[in-house]
Specification:
- The protein is of the alpha+beta class.
- The protein contains four helices and five strands, in the order ααβααββββ.
- A five-stranded antiparallel sheet has the order 1-2-3-4-5.
- It is globular.
Length: 146
């Protein structure tokens, strides 16, 4: 069977299950893309703005703009390579205009001195603007995640 037909069939099935289920599917795919873009980079091509377009203006200032020169310098000097992905999604809540996603991410960060491999529980709040989901807040858990 053609993979494109299979994917189209799954999309149609999810859509038929209801708008909330389809919106959760869209949010899941969106957050997977965000996590990939933001957390997979190498010191060789790091710009400091990876994934910036997925965040609100306030979050851009917090995560990107305040320390961008320092971050770029540190990553290049220490030859940082980052790999990251979603380990699991615990919950997705949405009303179609706002959403909240609880997930566990996994990061493997290597530099000239060491490698760190860790998981983080986070709750991500989003809102919909011009038919696009925008991240407005992230709460990181301080507890160790297994």
């Amino acid at each position: 069977m053609n993979n494109n037909l299979l994917i189209l069939g799954l999309d149609l099935l999810i859509f038929q299950l209801g708008p909330n289920t389809y919106e959760k599917y869209i949010l899941r795919k969106h957050i997977e893309k965000v996590m990939f873009v933001c957390n997979n980079y190498s010191w060789e091509n790091y710009s400091g703005k990876e994934g910036m377009e997925f965040f609100s203006k306030d979050m851009q200032r917090i995560l990107y703009l305040n320390d961008i020169k320092y971050n770029i310098q540190y990553i290049k000097e220490n030859k940082v390579i980052s790999k990251g992905y979603i380990d699991r999604i615990n919950d997705i809540k949405t009303d179609g205009k706002k959403a909240q996603i609880s997930l566990v991410s996994r990061r493997i960060i290597t530099d000239i001195k060491s490698t760190a491999d860790f998981k983080t529980l986070m709750v991500i709040s989003l809102y919909k603007e011009n038919n696009k989901w925008i991240i407005d807040n992230i709460i990181f858990s301080k507890k160790e995640v297994l």
